[in-house]
Amino acid sequence: MRLPSVLLALVVAGCAGAQASSTPAAARDAIPALDSAKLLGDLFRLSHDSMAGRAAMTPENAKARAYLVSEMRRLGLAPVGASFEQPFAMPRRNRPDSVRGVNVVAQVRGTRFPERAIVVSAHFDHVAPRNGNIYNGADDNASGTAALLQLAAHFQRHKPEHTLIFAFFDAEEMGLLGARAFVANPPVPLAQIAANVNMDMVARGDNGTLWAVGTNPHPVMKPIVEALVPASGVTVKMGYDTGTGRDNWTSLSDQGAFHAQGIPFVYFGVEDHADYHEPTDDPEKVNAGWYYNAARTIAAFVTRLDVAVAGWPPR
Ligand SMILES: [Zn+2]
């Protein structure tokens, strides 16, 4: 097949840019293709009734975790340390008992700056059944988990310049416990973690908007979000990171644990919807096409962030 001249121009431009960065400009600016069938299939698998909501410390949570570990093995990612599974015990807020959870953590080593890492994360737990109702948590957060699996697959094929750590956090619903355990006992020194990209509720594009949260507390992220070209149908807006209460999402998901350590983050998510934390957060409610394009947009953001981090001073 002949290359259209516009594509040829991009290839030439890509070669010219190769001295500044090992990632050609054309590859950097393209919106990655992911496996849409696998993305949706994983969302359905993780939010199936047999997973019973994947609440921390349940057998169904362990089943979801075993699947994530098997996928990391299948994709050929490496653990960070001895094992993909990183157990923790964390006290619950205002409760005497500790939560025993297990994060799943894997990495793709950077080709140019492997000693510096970007943590890309999503929590895989949700909440336990109540009154005989299963809370499937399709959007919250089978969506982010399945997207993270796709990002791991993508960056295993298209190697990043910095090391990407893929963190599937447990016990987010009990107070960001998996993420807090991760930063309290990090598998690499915190000073080596340049940034966090967190996904939590990325499938319900009911109004087409994917929020990119964190550019106010971390202005270093702003030009990267501004330069992002979203996939079709996805509108990326910045906000929900000033003010108080539920209008400020800075610490409402796992990115809060990184923010508390001064680590720049961008959190991607949709606005709360009628099925938020209801038994009706079901996979059938997901807008599959929008979800796919949201995941691709986030993959494109991680690609841009990986390039930008090279220009950041060490923390
Ligand atoms: Zn969530």
UniProtKB/TrEMBL annotation:
Q: Which Gene3D superfamilies match?
A: Zn peptidases (3.40.630.10)
Q: Where is the signal peptide?
A: 1-20
- Which residues are in the Peptidase M28 domain? 103-302
Q: For this UniProt record, give its keywords in alphabetical order, as a comma-separated list.
A: Signal
* Record GO terms (molecular function): metalloexopeptidase activity
Q: Please, one GO biological process term?
A: proteolysis
PANTHER family (alphabetical): METALLOPEPTIDASE M28 FAMILY MEMBER, PEPTIDASE M28 DOMAIN-CONTAINING PROTEIN
Identification of the protein by name: M20/M25/M40 family metallo-hydrolase
Q: Which organism is it from?
A: Pseudogemmatithrix spongiicola
Q: What is the lineage of its organism?
A: Bacteria, Pseudomonadati, Gemmatimonadota, Gemmatimonadia, Gemmatimonadales
